[in-house]
Specification:
Two copies of one chain form a homodimer.
Chain A lengths: L1 E5 L8 H14 L2 E6 L1 H10 L9 E5 L13 H4 L4 H10 L5 E4 L3 H12 L9 E2 L2 E2 L6 E4 L9 H17 L7 E5 L10 H15 L4 E6 L1 H5 L5 E3 L2 H26 L3 H21 L1 H4 L1 E5 L5 E4 L5 H16 L2 H7 L1 H4 L9
Parallel strand pairs in A: 1-2, 1-4, 2-3, 4-12, 7-10, 8-9, 8-10
Antiparallel strand pairs in A: 5-11, 6-7, 11-12
Helix pairs in contact in A: 1-12, 4-5, 6-7, 9-10
Chain lengths: 344, 344
């Protein structure tokens, strides 16, 4: 397993990326290629207490860096020698099994779509993180890659999410729900009303296990294994969970520091609280693959620390080994859709 | 202050409605009219330990009940003698200052729009609950009344939300944010990209204090006082908060019951945990007015218990007294919009 890592992407680059790669390499033995400005990567290595690269790790020099302020649609093209573009080209050419990047989501998505390309027949890529729920977790597909969706895109997201839950989460018959604002079949906005019969037909045909509309609160209590959503609403849900988690932990912290008895109580439950926090911590997940792209391209959180980078590398390897992409390619026949004004 | 209450609406009707009305009347002294099947209301009164109605409370007999399974668009019309339709007609005719109902949201919204009517010039009604945030709370407008929105509807929701925050929450210059999937001006789906310049222009004209795009996680940390959203995404956010709150409290409960020391810790923080839960409990809010409707019509949660009903009655009185509707009517000049294919 060889993972290509954009060492220059993310708020804490290159330090966090390099430290994360060292940790992941040590724990997993995976080969890792650090892509970026060689002198900066070497400086970070020294700061991490390493005088030389361990065997199995290498540097691929790339002189440019895609910045968050760059136009996402064109950055990967204009900056041909950026760590992002070089990394994508490497994974496209088979010089590694997966590419991990914590840089601009938009630039990475444009690049992944145009450099590594989508799987033939898939109309749009989706980001599909696993969100914590009362039944262990659910794939939220899409959560930001494709903000404006057609009903056909949602149908394909259902297929992508279902295979992902099967292959990567190990759920044999994932329950696929349409994220909606009511549980009854007739609920929702125009997009959901048009998508529902498509998902139902796919369920009736035995291609997915469609369980109908699922509201966001039911979803959190474990109502489905796959939540099908347009990228806009999915992102609102994902960021709401992030925000409320942070807000609640802040409130709990305030409560535990309020008085001496409370501080004692905090000491007692400290370890368990840490476990709970871990369960809800996005950096524990680390990275999210772009589903529908023909090669494993994994987006790590922009604020990734070393732990998050190490986790993203492990997720990338898991995804590359899962057989997900081969599954989609093998079953693309029934997934193909025709959208208005667009050709296959 | 006279509040009209649909005694037959909600999962726990009429018992919870009657008990809640008794409590609210005792605490506030407001006059309350219970609308519904008289014999069922009297039976509930006896079950609450009351042999007769206290002075200031009365019953208005209405023989029909709008059920959740009724078609929301026509239920209020077909069931003319339902507690919902009778209550709406009463508030329309000035037989009370506000109407509170925990029945079907869709039926209540259709009824409010067609019986009491919208404020002249307002295109769509919005539901705008106050969600708990790190800065105390934010109005989420809309969160389910209007699932499919035009940019012009979002502009009007910004006005409605801003006046609501001013009049009901007492915030002098509410920060109005467009709920979006990125903070930069250029972020979002087609709807947000079209709405942004309208909100910006309203801000530049001094009609609102527009603070730009706000992501859901920033919103939870207190990034805005008003969150402008289409009803679909707003509902996804609201239900996500509900779901994650429930999920987290369940996890915390599990943690506190895990071991004897943890149980001791739980005892110590019990009171503070209760406070925290209260802070996050939707029944503490009780009810949400339909903003844009010409009379105070308040939707209470379908699962309202007596406490939630009592709170909804207090919120209804607060809303009726706030001067919000008069404010909108006085300022409708700059709020009027023209939508494609529709006439003013």
């Amino acid at each position: 397993m060889k993972i290509i890592l954009d060492a220059m992407g993310g708020d804490n680059a290159p330090m966090a990326a390099v430290q994360g790669a060292l940790n992941a390499h040590r724990d997993s033995g995976y080969d890792i290629v650090l892509v970026g400005r060689e002198e900066e990567i070497r400086k970070a290595l020294i700061a991490c207490g390493e005088t030389a690269l361990p065997t199995g790790m290498e540097i691929r020099d790339a002189r440019e860096v895609v910045e968050i302020c760059d136009d996402p649609a064109t950055a990967f093209k204009r900056k041909k020698d950026s760590s992002l573009t070089v990394g994508l080209t490497m994974v496209k050419n088979g010089e590694g099994d997966a590419f991990v990047c914590a840089g601009s989501t938009g630039a990475l998505l444009s690049g992944a779509t145009l450099v590594t390309k989508r799987i033939r027949g898939i109309r749009r890529a989706a980001m599909a993180p696993v969100i914590p729920t009362a039944s262990g977790g659910a794939v939220l597909c899409d959560c930001g890659a494709t903000a404006d969706c057609t009903p056909e895109y949602l149908l394909q997201f259902a297929f992508l999410g279902s295979f992902y839950a099967k292959r990567v989460m190990g759920i044999e018959t994932p329950r696929v729900g349409l994220l909606n604002i009511g549980a009854e079949d007739s609920k929702g906005d125009a997009l959901r009303l048009a998508a529902f019969p498509l998902l139902k037909a796919a369920g009736d045909a035995g291609h997915i296990n469609f369980v109908g509309n699922v509201e966001a609160n039911t979803a959190m209590m474990g109502g489905a294994d796959v939540l099908v959503s347009d990228g806009f609403s999915g992102n609102i849900m994902l960021k709401s969970l992030e925000g409320v988690g942070k807000f609640l932990l802040q409130e709990l912290k305030g409560m535990f520091f309020k008085s001496t008895p409370n501080k004692m109580a905090a000491l007692i439950v400290k370890k368990d609280m840490k476990e709970l926090k871990k369960k809800l911590d996005p950096s524990e997940v680390g990275g999210t693959p772009f589903l529908g792209v023909s090669k494993p391209v994994i987006k790590a959180h922009g604020s990734s620390d070393a732990k998050a980078f190490a986790n993203a590398i492990l997720r990338a390897a898991e995804y590359a080994e899962s057989g997900f992409i081969a599954d989609i390619e093998a079953n693309i026949g029934y997934m193909k859709v025709q959208s208005e004004g667009e050709k296959m």
